[in-house]
C-alpha cells in the first residue's frame, strides 16, 4: 500500500517539532533511499530516512545505524555540494498531498545565503526527490524525467519545478457534508481507498466524521496489518494489528524486503560469486566421477600393449586388429592409430595404462576436494539468506582472503573493524552470541568462548554457531539456544530439528579446514521446532548493541 496524504500529515506534524535543525551528513542506503543526519535542539542527533522506492516509499526517523553504500550516487553528491551544513528551517506538506517540502537555508560558493527547497514526493511509482533553487529551477532529481518521457511535467536539471497536478477537492478539515455512496478519494484531499473504506465503515456504524479525522490527525501510532497499515485502527478489515509508535512502525515496515534490496545493491557481487562458484563445482564433480570410473579399466590397456607386442610380426596394420587372448583364446579387438606402427601403438597403450593407474588416487583427492568446495559454497549460500549488509560484507572479506574474489579499491577508506558484527543477546545477565557467517562463527568459538561455556550447532545442516556464556544452563536456556541454532540454519522451515550441544572444551579445530569448521568429541542432542515469531520477539527484547 502507498502512503496517503493524511498519514503523511501526521508524520509531518511530528517532523516539524525538530525544526529548525542542522543537516550534518547525507548518505545513500540504497539507490532510492537516502538518510539525513540532523542535529536538533531538543532531541540531539537523529537520522531521517527518505525512501522513494516505488512500492515502499515513506519518510521516517530511524534509530538503526544501517551500512551505507561505499560509493555515493550522483544525486547524493549534488545534495552534499548544495546542502551540506545547511539549516532546515521548516518542513511543509503541500495541500494534504503526498508531497513534503523541506525549506533549506544554504550557502553558495561565495558564502551568501540561498533558500533552496527539497521536495520529497511519496507518490507510489512516481516517488521522487527533487532539489530546487530559490528561483524555482530544478538543480537535480533522484529520478530524472526528460521532456520526451513526460511533456506535461519535466523533472530534469534546468527545468522549472511544477507540483504534481491535483484534482479540485475539499480540504479534509473543512468538510461539512459527504456523499456516502462515492469514495472519499474523489471528494476530499489526503484520502486513499483504504482510508476511505475505514471512514465509510465507521460512519455507517454511527461514528462522526470529525471524530475519526481528529483521531487520524492526532495519532502517534502505526497499526500494521499483513498487507496494509495506517495511523488509525482499520476496523473494517476485521484483523488484529501490530501497534508501534509511528516512527518505529515506519522503520519496521518492509524491513525484510528492504534488507534484501540493500544487500543486493551493496553486495550483489558476493551473491553472484557464490552462485557462480557453486554452479562451477557442481558441474565439475560428475566429470571427475566419470573420469574415475573410466580409470578403473586401466588393465585393459596393459592387455592391448602385451597382445600387440606378442603378435607384432603377424598383424597386418588396419584400423582395428583382432588377435587371440592368451588365456581365453577369444579374439580381442584393438583400435590402431594409423599414424604409428604396431610397436608405437603398443607403447601408447602402455603409457595410457600407467597414466590411468596413477590418476585414480589423484582423481579421488580431487573428488573429495570438489565435494568440500560444494559443501563450503552451499554453506555460504545459506548464510547469505539470513544476513544483513554488514554480514554480507564480512562474507566478501572471507572470499577475498580465500582468493576467490578480488579486493575492490574504494575512494572511501573503510574503517578497520577488529570484531565481527555478531548478534548478541543478553537474557537474565547471561550472554548469548550468534554467528551468521564463518568469520563470526570462528570469532565466537575461538575468541569469545571459555572452556566451560556451552556451544550449540544444528545437526546435519549448515548453520550458526551459538555460544551460551553459562556453565550450567537450565532447560529453558538450552531450548532457547537450540531454537536459535535451528532458526539460523537450513533447517529453519523444518520441525523436530536436531541440535547438538556440548562444552567448548569438547570442540576441536581441524587443521587445514575452512574458517569456522570444528568437530566435537562428545555431545548431547536436543530436538526443537523453530518458531519465527518467538525468535523475532527474543531479538527485539534481548538484543544488546
From TrEMBL:
Domain NFACT RNA-binding: from-to ranges: 428-513
Pfam families given in the database record: NFACT-R_1, NFACT_N
InterPro entries: NFACT_RNA-bd, RQC_Subunit_NEMF
PANTHER family assigned to the protein according to its UniProt record, in alphabetical order: NUCLEAR EXPORT MEDIATOR FACTOR NEMF, RIBOSOME QUALITY CONTROL COMPLEX SUBUNIT NEMF
Protein name: NFACT family protein
Species assigned in the record: Absicoccus intestinalis
Amino acid at each position: 500500500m502507498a502512503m496517503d496524504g493524511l498519514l503523511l500529515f501526521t508524520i509531518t506534524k511530528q517532523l516539524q517539532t525538530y525544526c529548525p535543525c542542522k543537516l550534518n551528513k547525507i548518505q545513500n542506503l540504497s539507490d532510492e533511499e537516502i538518510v539525513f543526519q540532523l542535529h536538533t535542539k531538543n532531541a540531539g542527533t537523529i537520522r531521517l530516512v527518505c525512501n522513494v522506492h516505488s512500492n515502499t516509499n515513506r519518510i521516517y526517523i530511524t534509530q538503526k545505524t544501517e551500512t551505507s553504500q561505499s560509493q555515493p550516487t550522483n544525486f547524493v553528491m549534488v545534495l552534499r555540494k548544495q546542502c551540506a551544513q545547511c539549516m532546515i528551517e521548516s518542513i511543509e506538506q503541500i495541500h494534504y498531498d503526498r508531497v513534503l517540502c523541506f525549506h533549506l537555508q544554504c550557502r553558495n560558493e561565495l558564502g551568501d545565503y540561498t533558500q533552496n527547497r527539497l521536495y520529497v514526493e511519496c507518490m507510489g511509482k512516481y516517488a521522487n526527490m527533487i532539489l530546487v533553487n530559490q528561483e524555482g529551477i530544478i538543480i537535480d532529481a533522484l529520478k530524472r524525467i526528460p521532456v520526451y518521457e513526460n511533456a506535461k511535467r519535466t523533472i530534469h536539471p534546468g527545468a522549472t519545478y511544477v507540483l504534481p497536478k491535483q484534482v479540485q477537492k475539499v480540504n479534509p478539515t473543512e468538510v461539512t457534508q459527504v456523499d456516502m455512496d462515492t469514495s472519499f478519494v474523489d471528494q476530499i484531499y489526503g484520502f486513499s481507498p483504504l482510508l476511505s473504506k475505514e471512514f465509510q465503515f465507521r460512519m455507517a456504524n454511527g461514528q462522526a466524521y470529525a471524530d475519526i479525522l481528529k483521531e487520524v490527525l492526532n495519532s502517534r501510532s502505526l497499526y500494521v496489518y499483513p498487507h496494509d497499515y495506517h495511523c488509525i485502527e482499520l476496523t473494517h478489515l476485521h484483523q488484529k494489528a501490530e501497534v508501534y509508535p509511528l516512527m518505529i512502525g515506519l522503520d519496521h515496515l518492509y524491513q525484510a524486503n528492504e534488507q534484501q534490496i540493500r544487500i543486493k545493491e551493496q553486495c550483489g557481487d558476493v551473491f553472484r560469486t557464490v552462485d557462480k562458484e557453486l554452479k562451477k563445482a557442481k558441474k565439475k564433480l560428475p566429470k571427475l566421477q566419470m573420469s574415475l570410473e573410466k580409470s578403473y579399466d586401466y588393465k585393459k590397456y596393459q592387455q592391448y600393449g602385451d597382445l600387440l607386442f606378442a603378435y607384432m610380426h603377424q598383424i597386418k596394420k588396419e584400423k582395428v586388429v583382432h588377435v587371440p587372448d592368451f588365456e581365453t583364446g577369444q579374439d580381442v579387438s584393438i583400435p590402431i592409430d594409423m599414424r604409428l606402427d604396431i610397436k608405437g601403438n603398443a607403447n601408447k597403450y602402455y603409457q595410457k595404462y600407467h597414466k590411468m593407474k596413477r590418476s585414480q588416487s589423484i582423481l579421488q583427492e580431487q573428488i573429495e576436494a570438489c565435494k568440500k568446495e560444494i559443501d563450503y559454497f552451499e554453506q555460504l549460500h545459506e548464510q547469505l539468506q539470513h544476513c544483513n549488509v554488514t554480514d554480507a560484507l564480512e562474507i566478501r572479506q572471507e572470499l577475498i582472503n580465500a582468493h576467490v574474489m578480488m579486493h575492490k579499491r574504494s575512494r572511501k577508506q573503510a574503517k578497520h573493524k577488529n570484531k565481527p558484527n555478531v548478534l548478541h543477546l543478553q537474557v537474565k545477565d547471561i550472554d548469548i552470541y550468534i554467528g551468521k557467517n564463518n568469520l563470526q562463527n570462528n570469532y565466537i568459538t575461538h575468541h569469545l568462548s571459555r572452556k566451560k561455556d556451552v556451544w550449540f550447532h544444528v545437526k546435519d545442516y549448515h548453520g550458526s554457531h551459538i555460544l551460551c556464556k553459562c556453565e550450567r544452563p537450565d532447560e529453558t536456556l538450552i531450548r532457547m539456544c537450540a531454537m536459535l541454532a535451528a532458526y539460523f540454519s537450513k533447517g529453519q522451515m523444518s520441525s523436530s530439528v536436531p541440535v547438538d550441544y556440548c562444552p567448548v572444551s569438547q570442540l576441536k579445530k581441524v587443521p587445514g579446514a575452512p574458517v569456522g569448521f570444528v568437530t566435537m568429541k562428545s555431545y548431547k542432542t536436543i530436538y526443537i521446532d523453530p518458531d519465527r515469531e518467538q525468535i523475532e520477539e527474543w531479538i527485539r527484547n534481548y538484543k544488546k548493541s
